[in-house]
Specification:
The chain is α+β, with helices and mostly antiparallel strands. It has three domains: about 40-175, Glutaredoxin (3-Layer(aba) Sandwich); about 180-200 and about 230-255 and about 265-280 and about 290-440 and about 460-525, no CATH class; about 535-560 and about 600-660. The protein has helices at about 5-25, 45-55, 65-70, 75-95, 115-120, 160-175, 195-205, 215-220, 250-260, 300, 410-415, 490, 505-520, 520-525, 535-575, 580-660, and strands at about 60-65, 100-105, 125-130, 135, 135-145, 150, 180-185, 225-230, 240-245, 265-270, 305-315, 320-325, 330-340, 360, 365-370, 380-385, 395, 425-430, 440-445, 460-465, 475-480, 490-495, 500. The strands form seven sheets. It has a seven-stranded mixed sheet, sandwiched between helices. Strands 2-1-5-6 form a four-stranded mixed sheet, with helices on both faces. Helix 15 (about 535-575) runs antiparallel to helix 16 (about 580-660).
């Protein structure tokens, strides 16, 4: 066999070895994998590995993707092929780290097949592409006890939360169906029926019972809801706690809240520097209008790494909504009435607030982190969820009476722009310490014996309640500095048919928070996963710069049109009573000038767009040339290296032979 033939055989054998090794590694359940992505996209978080390590029953995860149908689908569906590859690789990591407790099945639901029927039965979203073909992309998790959970559709805008959604799916399948939610509030959020006293009084007066708040009605559909008294000494038999407007709570209730959090309970607090939804007590008469309407828990929150600034409100001119105080008054921006609709107003890296588009707050307070001390949490983390823009600031009133009769102009004068956002919603995580490390003493009236009257000289009875001083594990609380945002007047509106519908994302914010907190504690630490798509940053910069220039050109056109309209109206006013022919000629001349200016501006816009397109095309050609030359360049370099190496070895061999001959 000559040298050329040996080289060809060697190359073929190397190819066979590479393909065989690749096939073996691909099909091996314990294949060696190395995540080389910048954001570790295919590496599971520690929280996910903890959840998988707790599995004690076999689970089956079915990943549905219409691969066959997508081959001939429109470009919008073609995008999901890469997305599916990302989800598939991540799901395989789940299976590898589950110690055999999770089995993954990849299903392509063909038209009229049993798999397609199962996908419909499981409740996966169907997108019809034709009369016969449907597109599916979702997941179904089943347990040996008949529990079925699903992700109806992997939405592209949640690609950074794929790991969270999958881990939560597993966590929810192995836990109790309904989480027990306790609600503690100084307001009648549960309705009159929740209070036997109020129910009896209104029935005696012939008045209808007030229903529960609409947000509570929604919560009752998701959770096992119970009411917690505001004078409770302990909070038990609940998994999650919602505290709404905790006003003037006694020490026993503060102690109960403190111990619930320190013992590992998760709680969501809604406090307010001025609550508009709070109704004055009619028994106080005229003085009820001037009664304080604030609530805060700084006595507890400061120890846990957060506080609400006393008497201060969050403001932002860019977010202030316009109102009018009477039918004759004009619309004016109210500095305390904020629409958090800007992208930077919500934390896009947190699953709670990532998809919020519009949240309305009414005279919300300002939250800020408190530096750790010996009496507070150790290594606490303050995570903002909602905030103003960088031009937001806090403001205050001299007296709460200024809020009884709103004057938007006067309130706006109290505001001055700042240089950093004001936080109105946040999460604090850490190992919490108790505000009552030594417990508290409860003083009670002496009990009566039989039917005898109480002895006036009898001394009160004191009971001591022991406390847990420091939490054994890391916990989390969420705090929002407004109560009105979940009230019926801001979060809902009645429809024509007597139904109610949500307004904006106010209710979604609270539901997302409770939903996130209702999972296991491991979900709270789950990180946001990076985007699986790698953007062309240079291309995006070119597009943004060109679009910015085009926006300037368009604004110039609009300004020119407005200027013309103003001049035209002025011309008409000046020429009142003149001949109609002169008036029409003036208008015609101005119209011709406008058309010429618009034509010139549109031509400039076309030039900008053309230049943008040329820059992108040139960049694309450059990248294509680089991609085309990289592989040949590598092969050429390898060939040169091999050739030089062989030449050096050949010279060494010849030199050795000459040396032996001379010897």
């Amino acid at each position: 066999m000559n040298r050329s033939m040996r080289a060809i055989v060697a190359i073929l054998l190397i190819g066979v070895i590479v393909l065989s090794l690749n096939s073996i590694l691909r099909n091996s359940p314990q294949a060696f994998r190395l995540d080389m992505t910048d954001e570790q996209l295919y590496t599971l978080s520690d929280s996910t590995e903890t959840v998988l390590g707790k599995l004690r029953q076999p689970l089956t995860l079915k990943l549905y993707f219409s691969r066959t149908v997508s081959l001939n689908a429109p470009d919008q569906i073609q995008f999901f092929t890469n997305y599916y590859s990302f989800v598939k690789a991540l799901v395989e990591e789940y299976e590898r780290h589950s110690n055999g407790m999770l089995t993954v099945e990849f299903i392509d639901p063909l038209p009229f097949s049993d798999d397609e029927e199962d996908a419909l039965r499981y409740g996966l979203k169907r997108f019809p592409l034709s009369e016969e073909e449907n597109f599916f992309f979702g997941a179904v998790l089943t347990t040996g006890f008949g529990v079925v959970k699903q992700i109806p559709f992997f939405a592209p805008d949640r690609n950074t939360f794929v790991e969270y959604d999958l881990t939560r799916l597993i966590d929810s399948a192995i836990t109790r169906e309904k989480t027990r939610l306790g609600i503690l509030s100084s307001l009648s959020v549960m309705g009159d029926a929740a209070s036997p006293y109020m129910a009896q009084m209104k029935m005696m007066q012939g008045q209808p019972l007030a229903p529960a708040w609409k947000i509570v009605q929604q919560l009752q559909q998701r959770y096992e809801v119970s009411s917690i008294s505001t004078d409770s000494e302990a909070i038990e038999d609940v998994d999650l706690l919602l505290v709404i407007h905790p006003k003037d709570l006694p020490e026993s209730a503060l102690f109960a809240l403190d111990q619930f959090v320190v013992k590992g309970g998760r709680a969501v607090f809604l406090i307010d520097p001025y609550s508009f939804v709070e109704q004055p007590d009619p028994r106080m008469g005229q003085q009820a209008q001037f009664a304080p309407r604030n609530s805060d828990l700084n006595v507890l929150l400061k120890t846990w790494g957060m506080e609400m600034e006393e008497g201060k409100f969050a403001g932002d001119r860019l977010l202030a909504q316009k109102i009018r105080t009477s039918a004759q008054s004009p619309f004016e921006p109210l500095i305390g009435y904020l629409n958090l609709g800007c992208r930077d107003c919500a934390n896009r890296e947190n699953v709670i607030s990532s998809e919020l588009q519009e949240v309305v707050m009414l005279f919300a307070g300002s939250l800020k982190a408190v530096e750790d001390s010996e009496d507070s949490v150790a290594k606490s983390e303050f995570i903002p969820l909602l905030q103003t823009t960088d031009r937001g600031n806090v403001w205050e009133v001299e007296s709460p009476t200024e809020l009884l009769y709103l004057d938007p102009g006067a309130l706006m004068d109290k505001f001055s722009e700042g240089e950093e956002p004001v936080v109105m919603g946040a999460i604090v995580t850490g190992t919490f310490r108790s505000n009552f490390p030594d417990g508290i003493d409860i003083t009670e009236e002496p009990p009566q014996t039989g039917g005898e009257k109480q002895d006036p000289e009898a001394e009160p009875v004191t009971r001591h309640l022991d406390a847990v001083a420091v939490a054994e594990q890391e916990g989390a609380i969420a705090v929002f500095s407004d109560v009105d945002f979940i009230s019926d007047m801001l979060a809902y509106q009645d429809t024509f048919f007597g139904m109610s519908t949500t307004v904006g994302n106010n209710s979604d914010l609270l539901l997302n928070t409770l939903d996130d907190f209702s999972g296991s504690g491991d979900l709270i630490g789950l990180r946001t996963r990076g985007n699986f798509q790698r953007p062309f940053i240079v291309v995006e910069q070119i597009q943004q710069e060109a679009e910015y220039r085009m926006a300037e050109e368009e604004n110039a056109i609009v300004a020119e049109i407005d200027k013309f309209n103003a001049e035209l109206q002025s011309l008409i006013a000046q020429q009142q009573g003149q001949e109609q022919e002169v008036l029409e000629n003036s208008i015609l001349k101005k119209r011709q000038e406008l058309e010429l200016s618009i034509h010139q501006a549109e031509r400039q816009l076309r030039q900008v767009r053309m230049k943008k397109r040329e820059q992108i095309d040139a960049l694309g050609k450059t990248l294509q040339q680089i991609n085309s030359l990289v592989a040949p360049a590598i092969i050429l370099c390898l060939g040169i290296f091999v050739g030089i190496r062989q030449r050096v070895l050949r010279q060494r061999h010849l030199q050795t032979l000459r040396t032996q001959e001379h010897a």
